[in-house]
Amino acid sequence: NTVMAAQMTNAHRRFLQVLMSNGITEGSEARKLHQHCCETDKVHYAHDKLDDFISTINSHLQPLFMQIRKGISEDDGRAHYAVVNLAETEVTKMASDYTEIELELFRKTMDLIILSENGFASSTDILNLADQLKTKKIKKKEAEQVLKVFVEDKWLSEKNGEYTLHTRCIIEMEQYILSNYQDVARKCNICHSLAIQSQVCESCGIGMHLPCVRKYFRAQTEPRCPKCNEFWSCDIP
């Protein structure tokens, strides 16, 4: 590990450390961090070379089964970066941070979100799971606290009592979700990232993130599916 790290500049190392401690970093913040690390380390900084800078780090992380991955926020379409552990792409990677009860509630919440039509689960539905847990039944008050922690730790997002998967969770658990929810999990037809909150073509079944739908149909007078060319019947956000 030390040998691998030694081949990276201090700028690369500093960038990686901040990314790991953040859990997830928004695109504009990552660009600022890139500039700051290069200037601090007095190495050449090129504003349009963030992806190359990250590729260099990734080539050193490869033997450690880790990677910096880019994903988009399903909310506003903005880019985010997170460090992913490729050796443990499952919920098991969370096992060191949470109790068995908390993990079971998370898995069940994930089920509700992914199997829902719009990528959200209401707090009422999630809290109703509290007394059905196999590990140990818990009170709704306790379950509320657990959900709060998952939101703080950026595994879940909450809006008006509705929960969805946080961008961090989608980036880190993409493989886990795609292999465990094969029948329902789909990638966005436009950006090819996992789509939880999406619109689906009624004719051919492809899905698109809401920000991608917005962007794709912006210039079109009549929205037609990019795959089958049938009329896109969902309301354009």
TrEMBL record:
Keywords, comma-separated and alphabetical: Chromosome, DNA damage, DNA recombination, DNA repair, Metal-binding, Nucleus, Telomere, Transferase, Ubl conjugation pathway, Zinc, Zinc-finger
GO molecular function, one term: ubiquitin protein ligase activity
A single cellular component GO annotation: chromosome, telomeric region
Catalytic activity reported: S-ubiquitinyl-[E2 ubiquitin-conjugating enzyme]-L-cysteine + [acceptor protein]-L-lysine = [E2 ubiquitin-conjugating enzyme]-L-cysteine + N(6)-ubiquitinyl-[acceptor protein]-L-lysine
PROSITE patterns referenced in this protein's UniProt entry, alphabetically: ZF_RING_2
Domain spans labelled RING-type: 188-229
GO BP term, pick one: double-strand break repair via homologous recombination
The EC number(s) this enzyme carries: 2.3.2.27
Location(s) in or outside the cell: Chromosome, Telomere; Nucleus
Any matching Pfam family: SMC_Nse1
Role summary: RING-type zinc finger-containing E3 ubiquitin ligase that assembles with melanoma antigen protein (MAGE) to catalyze the direct transfer of ubiquitin from E2 ubiquitin-conjugating enzyme to a specific substrate. Involved in maintenance of genome integrity, DNA damage response and DNA repair.
Subunit: Component of the Smc5-Smc6 complex.
Family: Belongs to the NSE1 family.
Protein name from the UniProt record: Non-structural maintenance of chromosomes element 1 homolog
Species this chain originates from: Gymnorhina tibicen (Australian magpie)
